[in-house]
Design a protein that fits this description.
Strand order of the largest sheet of chain A: 1-2
Number of helices of chain B: 21
Number of strands of chain B: 12
Number of strands of chain A: 2
Shape of chain B: globular
Oligomer: heterodimer
Largest interface: A-B, 31 and 37 residues
Distance between the termini of chain B: 47 Å
Strand content of chain B: 5-15%
Largest sheet of chain B: 6 strands, mixed
Number of helices of chain A: 12
Structural class of chain A: mainly alpha
Largest sheet of chain A: 2 strands, antiparallel
């Protein structure tokens, strides 16, 4: 090997350890899961003893009503919680982005729910929703209203788990939105104020557009998390009544542990992974298109300014 | 996980089992080869096993064999065992397994056939008296390979010994029944009538506390009624019959019971149903005998002293539940022989009685007949009688049961909470169950 070739290879040699670690730590488990999804694999077997069945797990799932019911429950759950959490989280951040006495304490209190272990959150809400001893139904009783079957009725149970998730994860949106707000360039806001923009106009035309890249990433992170939420629902309803709150993560867990079908559970995980990748890709494309649009606007603005200067 | 090492716990033994028979003279030659062994056992978090652990230090005192207990919630325990049993050499010498795990473990050849231990004169206690073990429990929990694959028969073998096994009985509030002049129900007709009459007589009280939560719990509650009413999940050719007239009648019974319950009863698991009965919110409770001791504990129950017990009411036949746990020795156990000695000790007539006196579930008829036990727990005689009707074929213990059970349970939950038509719901379960069984090869010989 001559010196030139050795020089060309040097960067790759330095990169090799990191690449090896990434392949082993990141890609191997994913590859293992993809391979498992092609097997008829019972947890009592070693993976080498499982029968290779090709795409049968994927086809079975595609034809399974229960899978599709869980899929749509997941979509509905993610859509509700993420949109409501974004609305409340960003709203709170806009409200609390100011220098008030005790604001640091207030912000800390706001983020407490996301620090609590999900199992505890599930237990806490389960007992608050309890038909007899739960605080909500006792309030309703004291006020002379009928009690509500928060976890015993399909529609109410879905709404109840959505509320618990919103309570726990809105602070996450709030923190990131607040950080984004506080890093906005003050010159743009000052210019808007000088031009006479109202508070609403500042929010709609200055703050939100400038926060958008952070909000998109925040939304994506929450969306991914909402698709995978498990413990809170497991403790609160275990997917019931019927299948009304059985989201895909819970069905994957039940398929692996109760039905003892690791291959089908892996196939279901891959469907979920594909769905999340599609959502991520859509958001990525949207961000790129938005960046390109802004670049075009900036270029047009610069061109117009240059033309104006030349005319003068 | 709760890890308890029972070394030097002999001091506790005296207080823990004060009412139990005195220590027996153990043959030194039997235990001498295992003096340096520390057995690792896997038990569920369950009242019976809590009672067993209060007695366990005596084993170390008598035999010199030390025991470490790894105690887990029973479904977590099953997951842990599934992983452990696939290893070349496992950590567990002895496991307690939930009844429906029998099919999975035996099918995967992960448990020792116990014949080789009972045939070994250096291990098998001649006074063990296996005939005294409750027959329905042994058939349901211990034997596999006979009729239908999971029941006894000419080709069956013993893989486990019942330990912490359960049957179903009817608990009722004696004060409420006396106040309203009610008779204890003996038939399903009487049971269902009373279940909905009681809320009329006692407006804040439900009739019969029952499990009903989506999934396994609703399915379990349904099976409680299905068997006495003459139904079943499959016929002898593995064709699903869950949607026949008896199946529909059982679902109607469950719906009627839940509808006549208190607010929120559709989310009840066994603990919630038992807690509601213990807090005086129900007049009757139809479930496992494991809850009986708790109802008589005034620190946890407001109905202590006011609970009577009767046999599971009769439909077209008597068929109470068989379930709970058994003990088995994994094929990859590091100390299989010493584990057998512990298993034999725990299920011996003397220790079975000791554990029962601590509030555990007896595995032997003689324990139920013991005068001291009946004096301490007056319901024991009723439970012993109920066990004569425990149905070993109460549910199909086959590898596909987990998936069918979950589907049945979620469908029943839809029937209970979303007013899904019973016949339509059970027809769907039967159709899907047939597909699952077909894929698993149950119709290959037809």
């Amino acid at each position: 090997m001559n010196i030139q070739a050795a020089n060309r290879l040097t960067p790759y040699m330095f990169l090799a350890p990191a690449a090896a670690v990434m392949i082993i730590a990141l890609l191997y488990p994913i590859g293992y899961m993809v391979y498992a999804s092609f097997l008829d694999w019972n947890p009592s077997q070693r993976i080498g003893e499982a029968e290779f069945i090709g795409l049968r797990n994927y086809i079975n799932l595609w034809n399974s009503d229960s899978f599709w019911e869980s899929f749509w429950v997941t979509i509905r759950f993610a859509a509700f919680v993420v949109s409501i959490e974004m609305f409340i989280g960003v709203g709170l951040a806009l409200l609390l982005d100011r220098q008030l006495r005790g604001m640091a304490v207030l912000r800390t209190i706001f983020i407490l729910p996301m620090m609590i272990a999900p199992i505890v959150v599930g237990l806490m809400w389960r007992y608050m929703y309890h038909p007899q001893v739960g605080v909500f139904n006792r309030w309703l009783n004291n006020l002379g209203f009928d009690t509500i079957p928060f976890l015993g009725d399909s529609s109410w149970a879905f709404a109840s788990v959505v509320i618990a998730d919103i309570w726990q994860w809105t602070p996450f949106i709030f923190i990131l939105a607040l950080a984004a707000l506080q890093s906005l360039p003050s010159s743009a806001l000052e210019a808007a104020r000088v031009d006479g923009a109202t508070g609403w106009q500042q929010i709609l035309y200055i703050k939100l557009p400038l926060m958008l890249p952070v909000l998109i990433v925040t939304c994506l992170l929450r969306l991914i998390d909402a698709f995978k939420v498990l413990e809170v629902i497991l403790v609160m309803t275990n997917g019931g009544p019927g299948l009304s709150t059985e989201i895909l993560a819970l069905r994957i867990s039940r398929t692996a542990s109760e039905f003892r079908q690791l291959g089908e559970a892996a196939a279901m995980s891959n469907y979920l992974l594909i769905l999340l990748m599609v959502i991520t890709a859509i958001m990525f494309v949207y961000t790129r298109l938005n960046d390109a649009r802004l670049a075009r606007i900036r270029a047009a603005g610069a061109k117009a300014a240059q033309a104006e200067e030349e005319a003068v | 996980m709760k890890l308890i090492k029972t070394i030097a716990l002999a001091a506790l033994v005296g207080t823990a089992i004060s009412s139990a028979p005195a220590s027996a003279q153990m043959p030194e030659a039997v235990y001498a080869p295992y003096q340096d062994v520390t057995l690792v056992v896997n038990f569920p978090a369950h009242p019976h096993y809590d009672a067993a652990m209060r007695v366990l230090p005596l084993f170390t005192e008598e035999t010199g064999i030390e025991v470490e207990v790894d105690q887990l919630q029973y479904l977590r325990m099953r997951e842990r065992q599934t992983l452990e049993l696939t290893q070349d050499e496992g950590d567990y010498d002895l496991i307690a397994y939930v009844v429906f795990s029998k099919a999975d473990y035996v099918f995967a050849d992960q448990l020792h056939n116990l014949a080789r231990f009972f045939m070994d004169p250096s291990l098998a206690d001649p006074n063990y008296n296996a005939e005294d073990l409750i027959d329905g429990y042994v058939q349901n929990i211990g034997v596999a390979g006979g009729t239908k694959g999971y029941l006894p028969g000419p080709t069956g073998s013993l893989f486990g010994i019942p330990f912490g096994s359960e049957t179903s009985v009817l608990g009722y509030r004696t004060d409420v029944f006396e106040e309203h002049g009610l008779d204890v129900p003996e038939t399903y007709e009487e049971l269902l009538e009373l279940a909905c009459l009681i809320p009329e007589l006692e407006p804040d009280m439900g009739g019969l506390a029952s499990r009903a939560a989506s999934g396994h719990q609703a399915s379990h509650a349904y099976l409680l009624h299905l068997n006495p009413l003459g139904g079943g999940i499959f016929d002898d050719s593995w064709e699903p019959i869950v949607n026949n007239a008896q199946g529909v009648e059982a679902a109607e019974a469950l719906k009627s019971i839940v509808d006549c319950g208190i607010e929120g009863s559709t989310t009840f698991g066994p603990s919630e149903a038992a807690a509601a009965f213990a807090q005086g919110q129900y007049a009757m409770f139809l479930d496992s005998i494991a809850f009986a001791a708790g109802f008589e504990d005034p620190s946890r129950s407001t109905v202590a002293g006011n609970v009577g017990w009767a046999m599971h009411p009769m439909g077209v036949e008597r068929a109470s539940q068989t379930g709970g746990f058994g003990l088995a020795i994994p094929r990859n156990a590091p100390n299989a022989e010493a584990a057998f000695l512990l298993m034999q000790w725990l299920t011996s007539p003397r220790v079975d009685l000791m554990i029962a006196m601590e509030g555990g579930n007896p595995s032997r008829f003689s324990t139920y007949e013991d005068a001291a036990l009946n004096e301490r727990f007056p319901y024991s005689a009723t439970f012993g009688e109920a066990l004569r009707f425990a149905d070993p074929d109460w549910r199909p213990i086959i590898p596909t049961w987990g998936e069918i059970n979950a589907d049945l349970g979620t469908t029943l939950s839809q029937i209970l909470t979303e007013d899904l038509d019973i016949q339509e719901g059970l027809d769907g379960v039967a159709e899907r169950a047939r597909g699952i069984m077909d894929e698993a090869g149950y119709y290959a010989w037809q």
